Amino acid sequence: MAGRGRPSRTTVYARLDMALTELNDRLGGLPNPREAQEIWDDIWHEEAHHSTALEGNTLVLREVRALLDQGRAVGAKALREYNEVRGYATAAQWVYGQALEPDAWHDGNLITVNEVRRVHHAAMTPVWDVAPHPDATDREGPGNFREHDIMPFSEGMTPPPWPLVPEQVSQWVMEVCALGKRIEAGDELEHPLPEELARLHNGFERIHPFLDGNGRTGRLVVNLVLVRLRYPPIIILKRQRSSYLAALRRADSGDYGALGELIARAMEDNLNRFIVPNIAGPARLVPLAALADDEFSLAALRQAAQRGRLKAVQGADGIWRSSRKSVEAYRASKHQRPVGRG
Question: What predicted TM-score, i.e. pTM, was given to this entire model?
Fold first, then answer.
């Protein structure tokens, strides 16, 4: 008998595939950032916080929200840290805007070399203004490829010599565009989608095209690819830092499974936390995972559905579905006090 522990990687991939099908076939696809600003704002705050925290930024989410919403530097952190968040947030806003409304000058390809450089420029300029890289030449500022060789990483991987970077980035962009064409044509992929994305993300980090900011830029570029393919963006959480770095190390040797699983879980998490609950409407049936909150976990909702206390249906795919309206009715019934005998 199967255990009750963590779902297998195969299960995670299948669950994500069903969630994406549901998003596109039943719920109309990824919401437009202009028409669903609150959804994207929530993702924006979380991503700016967690992605910079992965690189050592110490601002907490409350401080990030104050900085991005009110322009207030709450706390007593170094100016560099505030500017790291500002830069990342600016780049992420541009990335999200590409979901359904690409720039007028966009050439129709999934991504271009100039866009990679643009993302880096947006993310790193505020940081560079107050704390430029000490070894940088005038030609290595934000948006420009490095002209220094990078020492081997502690895990053993050595980025290519700097004269090879422009050609390798161009080759990487061609691979991304080729993957996009296969996905849009419905062709069978060599690996599951999350592992194809893992391969590309790892490939970018192995090139390490910039003197600084490669991790932030790499995650932003992955999200640019995702939203242009009508997939939800991902957020690698700061508590996942060790797992993320370990998965990147495994990918260095051609094992993309752990990084692919991390990406798949992050895609599904954003679907369930931010997107599906807000575009489905109060009466529309959605997976219970999209209705879980601090009061009712997924396990609690599933148990209530199985016992008939929560109005829900189980589909042929085995997934229980309910609606926000039904969950609120269940919440109200839980909060009612029992009537005494008087």
Answer: 0.88
